[in-house]
Amino acid sequence: VSDVVVLHQNGQDTAHYVDSSGYRQVPEFLQPPEKENPLKHVEDTIEQNDNHFDGIINNTPSVDELEKKAKSGEQISLTDLADAIKAEKTHGKGKEEKPSIRAQLKADKKKAQKKTDKAEITELGKELTHGKIEQI
After folding, report:
1. In order along the chain (136 residues), what is the average pLDDT of each group of 10 residues?
2. How many CB atoms neighbour CB 84 within 10 A?
């Protein structure tokens, strides 16, 4: 059986840990509690990895980071890898670049030009086979 006893003598408080083997002073018992960061609760609720509070939410390593570690010979957690893959599927692998509209229009214009050229050649071939071309 053990307990902490606080003695008040001459206006001073002292805390002592007492058990069957004796007692020792524990001054940290009387220290005011540390002010808790309000983000700690949010991080504890949302955080995917259960490491200590660091102020960064969902700081799980990415698949690329884990692959680099594995290639360099470091051990990686398969659970971390699975979580990273799941997170990337859920949130996408980052912002993918959208194709340039100008490049798309240019490509479509070339495609349309090729179709017209091909149609003209086909028409010319039909005229040749049917003898419709006039000599100048």
Report:
1. 92 93 90 75 62 57 87 89 83 63 88 83 72 56
2. 21
